[in-house]
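Slide 14.
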Amino acid sequence: MIVLGYWNVRGYAQPIRLLLEYLQAEYKEKLYHDNGEEWFNIDKKELKTNFPNLPYLIDGDVVVTESKVIPIYLAKKFKKYELIGQNSDGSFNLNEITFLQILEILKELRDSLWASARVPSFKQEKDQIFKEKFNITFEKIKKQLGENSYILGNLSFLDFYFYEVLKFFQFFYPNLSIFTDFINRIENIPQIKSYLETRENKNFLLDRMKSQFYF
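Slide 15: predicted structure.
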């Protein structure tokens, strides 16, 4: 059985959880709590890779780390190559390049909000910050999406990642109403809908992190 290891939060692991659920993969999670003692003192040293990090994925003798690499491994394992922008037979498609570009852009967008919201002035300046900083990227994604249902035209891991970025933004901007159709589309994928209703998913509510940010 696949093991997904991460901190006991949503973070970079949440889009991977959504992907695993979509693939209907059998997996379990190894969650590490805030002090990190078990991770730093035991598992990080014993993980069978030269590059131990969180999140990690263990699949038999295979150990994969880094949040942008794990979905590539999963797409190839389950032969769902279109989930990473390739053709359905795994051959090269220009969408593969677009996939990697947008994945990096989305990570930077999320990380930028995380950093901004930890600065005390964010509470007073967040609307101006959104207008001057974040909205530019959202407009680019809107252009990429166009009239399509998904970012690359067909469903890919990017859509799960973008969904999580949008939920993260709604956490800080509760009145934000952009991409609502996209959010509903992801949440109504049968496998995702079922997962969002589970007790396991509810363990990762963003509200648990409110004390770390300025609202």
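Speaker note: The first strand starts at residue 2 and ends at 7.
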